[in-house]
Amino acid sequence: MKKRLILVAGNIGVGKTSITQRMGERLGWETGYESVADNPYLGDFYGDMRQWAFHLQVFFLGHRAEQHLAAHKAPKSAILDRSIYEDYYIFTRALYRLGNMNERDYHSYERVFNLITKTLPAPDLLIHLKAPVKVLLQRIQRRGREIESGITAEYLSLLDELYDEWLRNFDLCPVLTISSKDLNFVDKAEHLDIVLARIEQTLAGKDELVLDE
Fold this sequence. Notes:
The chain has eight helices and six strands. It is an alpha/beta fold. It has a single domain (5-211), classed as P-loop containing nucleotide triphosphate hydrolases (Rossmann fold, 3-Layer(aba) Sandwich). The protein has a six-stranded parallel beta sheet with strand order 2-3-1-4-5-6, with helices on both faces. Helix 4 packs antiparallel against helix 5 (103-118) and helix 4 crosses helix 7.
């Protein structure tokens, strides 16, 4: 496989980090992950979402733009856990819909997002992981992260709706949609084998594939 830039997108708890880690290890690819531990706004955001939503999203935007460019310029293929496009089309839109970002900040962010993403090289593939909200909640509860303790089924359903809206018009690269409900990328190598085979098929020229397991 020639040098590629692959993005992994999907709802909270859907398995993005697991597939990114396993593909990186299996193929010897560069990997990139969401900035959490070194994020200077995350704690403030969870204390007062309306006050800090704009600051948090601008930080994520800059971080992911740098990450996207670094992955593109890397000497070998790279896979990134979450894409820069989700920052706007999913999470900023969710903050705005829920009243945690005002209209002025929303449109200011939108303008900067559009300017930045127009300059970015297109990815070679977007892997979109999907799982039922009930499964996502179970996984979120099982991993027990304090910052995720307030996540509700209603919020996850809203994110699912936004993902569907976004991907209906996404045309930067092929999309491989994978149902991760019954896939275990960590413990079952054969599950990763299935995904890698579908990736090869998609990159060989098929516009879109849906993998249901």
